[in-house]
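Class, carefully examine what follows:
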Amino acid sequence: MIASETTPLVLAKASKPKTPLPKLQLGILLTIQLAEGITSTSIFPYINQLISELGITGGDDAAVGYYAGIIESLFFVAQALTVLRWSRLSDRIGRRPVLVIGLSGACISILCFGLSTTFWSLVISRCMCGVLNGNVGVMKTMMGELTDSTNMAQAFALIPTVWSLGGFLGPLMGGTLARPQDHWPVIFTDPFWGNYPYFLPCAVAACLLFLAFCTMVLFLEETSPTKRRPKLTSATLDDSSGESLPRRPTADISLRSLLTPTVIIPIANYAMFAFLEISRRVLVPLFFSTPTYLGGLGFDPSSIGSWLALFGIMDGVFQALLFAKLVDWLGPKRLFSASVSSYALLMVVLSIMSWLVRARGGVDYAVTFALLCQLVLSVICSMGLGTLLMFITVSTPTKDALGAINGLAQTSSSIARAVGPAFASSLFAASKEYNLLGGNAVFVILFMLAGVLRWLGSQLPDEIRDRDE
């Protein structure tokens, strides 16, 4: 079968036996992803308080969001400038060396973050992490190389599951271990912990990254078609293909030749989804930490960490137990549409919570019920990630181009994630400071953008094609 831009991506109906997942190799990849997920989310519970303590806001609580958004956005700017190069480099030298560099960079940068005492040192440490870490795109490429059409949904369901587990453990760790002298003054008596009150969660995160590094070096096998060892030549890593395109190294394939509608549409959806999702992830802890007189919930870092951890638990359980079944039942396109619709409803719930807090003067049973609704909607929304990863993986015209396709996808999502935090946090701060639309302008605009993504998702193929055709 010769694929073209107009060929529908139709899922093969003939029953095929499922290929067993390579559990050890996938387990190592997921361990790396878990360590990086814990590290990236561990700063969320205390980043706003840290910025306040630096004194750069001049005591203006509403301005904290501006600086928090800048820090997170610059990380994704740095990643967007380098992630495609890392993905292309992994096609030349193999996946493992790039993962080694990425884990080392993440470990060093999080230690620097914990030792930062100025705003610009925070910025430099986050930019260092973004420049040196191209692991996200490489790991998704390896996941695609380790699976086939029969077990792809099962494997990709594990990616958001592990991110959710990281989203549970990271905020819980960050919120619990931040400012240890306040919680355990008898143990942490050294003045060091007073000078660097947020170093402990960063040090623990660095230890987790080091353990993941050791596991990868000892046990992870190469999956690159040009670099893998002979013992990995199996059905899941077979290079044979029915594609009519000429076989040549990915490094020699021009990026322009890959930009067909079949590739561009899933990547465009992925970028827009990444923008909305990172906006939500930045907005929720900011909303939690904002004082009640501004329409926030006024939570401390420990409470923020607990609520984000609860989301991580719920999200991980739902992804692990239901994602593959929902893909089989609804199909990936319908599931993606449902996740985007839940995002729009989530913005409505957040605006209602803001009104309730102001009307009732604090957090009561009604606000708590709205919080639980927000958690459920967030879980449904996050299921869109796995479906888009499936669409991107099967859009590649040849298996040798999978690294480049994932690099393009990650570059676009990094650009979106660079804009998202600054956009959401700044708009949130402006909404509260100038009382735009009753302080709810940020929720209204994100609601409208979810509608745009809902239309963009309608352009996706109705079903995914068999990768082995």
